[in-house]
Amino acid sequence: MTAGKPQSQFNIFKETYKAEFVLILVTFSWGLTFPLMKLSLDFISVMLFNFIRFVITFIFFCIIFRKEIELSNIKSNYKYWKFGFLIGTFLFFGFIFQTIGLKYTTASKSGFITSTSIVIIPFAQYFILKSKPKIENIVGGIIVMAGLFILTDTFFSIPNIGDILTFICAFSFAVYIVLLDKYSVKINLHQLLFGQFFSMVILSFVFMLFFEVYLFSEFNFNFKEILILTLLYNSLIATLLSILMMTKYQHKTSSLRAGIIYSMESVFAAFFSYLILNDKLNKSQIIGIFIMFIGLIISEFYTLLKLKIKS
User: In the 8-state DSSP scheme, what is residue 57?
Assistant: First the structure.
């Protein structure tokens, strides 16, 4: 190995770790949504909440980036927006199948099954990107899954319809993460975001009408300060800013490493639930969090440590 090569590789790792630090902040912001949603969903039906959330996101995005997305030039921009429509559809189905699945399964099983996207990502990465994940990332992902299994107190049982719907959610999230890697390096950032947010608004409106207005008759809204706070936080921070950062930075790491980082959402959710809702963590949950961090560290730093030893 030449003297210059390790330094060059270290610079690549530096850029990767900068991007992954941003993704950790994104995941941290998602953790706060759990206790806020817990306090708010007594006052609004779930799909109406998502529809309002995505509408606020879309409006603010169009206002802030009106020059970049060139709304006056729809015909020429559609060829770029359509890729955002595609990946936004998978992101929406991840949200919606998780929400519907929660009606028929437990929150702990939902959290665990959603995070099985870590297992699906390597296969999606191979078939979509023709890229094989590194062995340390696979090992790290398996360890994270084991920790998550303990954290959520999940036990194997015969799958019900909620579990199956939640698995579709996990599949959708996995495909979204890989497609985001594929298109974020090819398509202008703002055009790609416009397509994502627009498709989520349209699909959330359609599903709200079908499920909450016609099928379940659960359409509900009661004005409360905590609800408005939650809507604004979810719209502007957990959706607009988070997806902006994901679209901008995720391609600088691998799909699987990004998926492992996103799985830390459960850890941050437990942390914020403890602070805000006074939810207590038992010993097994603390052990689960510790194991998840070990898996994250192996995935993140094994290659860098190996490189330093060789140099």
Answer: H
